[in-house]
């Protein structure tokens, strides 16, 4: 036993995090694999979410380092947005019990489907940068903290929301937008992880093994993203956004699902 946890279970979760880290570095959505795996491993929901933040932080930091080494992060504009996202994620984590989760359950799938449609159909999504619609300072004061707060409260799709902001509002090409998204993700993950650590809800033997897997996987994923660019990132973003929306709607208690089924079947 390692810290009271079966080594075979730790090895299996390491493998899941390795795959998830690879996907997450390219298009986000790694939590689609890791969070269910942690719940199936027997962790309670709070410990699963906290431990998932540890591996998610490792993956996003790893991807950020890989993109930064290639000069794809513009630090003067990116750093304020990341700091705002990190601070807002702590505020979001503190406000979890105060916000109506049912509203998020209904709204987020619609937003994810909208993002998938945008990336699938927009002609201007490419590797080259375009004209910005907002200044980096305005972005750091508006969308970055809004998504960071959401990441602390709920989380699914945060990377997709960052991505569409960097592409549509700051005019970044898709590879550079991915790099900036990973930095913002790292900041909001680390912010909420700090709070979970203080609360003592992280299962460290599991989390550290998964963090190593996520770190290594993110190195692979970031290299694939830089090599293949929009040819890989764009279709994977569409698939991941749709998969996250489907997963949220698969919950029988999802209010949007219940409303649609009630409209269709009169119940």
Tags for this model:
267 residues; 12 helices; 0% strand; Probable membrane transporter protein; TM_pro_TauE-like; transport
- Please count the helical segments: 12
Percent in strands: under 5%
SSE class: mainly alpha
Tell me about the largest β-sheet. Answer: none
Shape: globular
Radius of gyration: 18 Å
Mean pLDDT: 90
Topology, number of strands: 0
**SSE string:** HHHHHHHHHHHH
**How many angstroms separate the termini?**
51 Å
Q: Helicity, in percent? A: over 70%
SSE arrangement:
Blueprint: H1 7-27, H2 31-40, H3 45-69, H4 75-94, H5 101-121, H6 136-141, H7 143-153, H8 158-168, H9 174-199, H10 204-228, H11 230-250, H12 255-265
Helix pairs in contact: 1-2, 1-3, 1-10, 2-3, 3-9, 3-10, 4-7, 4-9, 5-11, 7-8, 7-9, 8-9
Question: What do you see in this structure?
Answer:
Pfam families: TauE. The chain has twelve helices and no strands. The protein has 267 residues and is mostly helical. The protein starts with 6 loop residues before the first helix and ends with a helix.
């Amino acid at each position: 036993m390692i810290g009271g946890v079966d080594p075979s279970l730790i090895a299996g979760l390491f493998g899941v995090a390795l795959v998830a880290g690879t996907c997450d570095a390219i298009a986000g959505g790694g939590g689609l694999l890791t969070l269910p795996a942690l719940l199936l491993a027997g962790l309670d929901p709070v410990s699963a979410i906290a431990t998932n933040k540890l591996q998610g932080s490792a993956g996003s930091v790893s991807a950020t380092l890989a993109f930064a080494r290639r000069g794809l992060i513009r630090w003067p504009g990116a750093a304020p947005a990341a700091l705002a996202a990190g601070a807002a994620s702590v505020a979001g984590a503190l406000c979890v019990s105060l916000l109506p989760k049912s509203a998020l359950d209904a709204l987020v799938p619609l937003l994810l489907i909208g993002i998938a449609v945008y990336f699938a159909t927009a002609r201007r999504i490419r590797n080259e940068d375009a004209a910005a619609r907002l200044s980096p300072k305005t972005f750091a004061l508006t969308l970055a903290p809004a998504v960071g707060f959401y990441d602390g409260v709920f989380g699914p799709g945060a990377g997709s929301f960052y991505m569409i902001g960097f592409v549509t509002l700051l005019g970044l090409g898709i590879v550079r937008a991915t790099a900036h998204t990973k930095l913002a993700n790292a900041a909001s993950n680390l912010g909420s992880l700090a709070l979970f650590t203080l609360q003592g809800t992280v299962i460290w033997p599991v989390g550290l093994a998964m963090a190593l897997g996520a770190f290594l996987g993110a190195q692979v994923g970031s290299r694939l993203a830089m090599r293949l660019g929009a040819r890989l990132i764009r279709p994977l973003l569409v698939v991941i956004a749709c998969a996250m929306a489907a997963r949220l709607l698969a919950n029988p208690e999802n209010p949007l699902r219940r409303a649609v089924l009630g409209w269709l079947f009169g119940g």
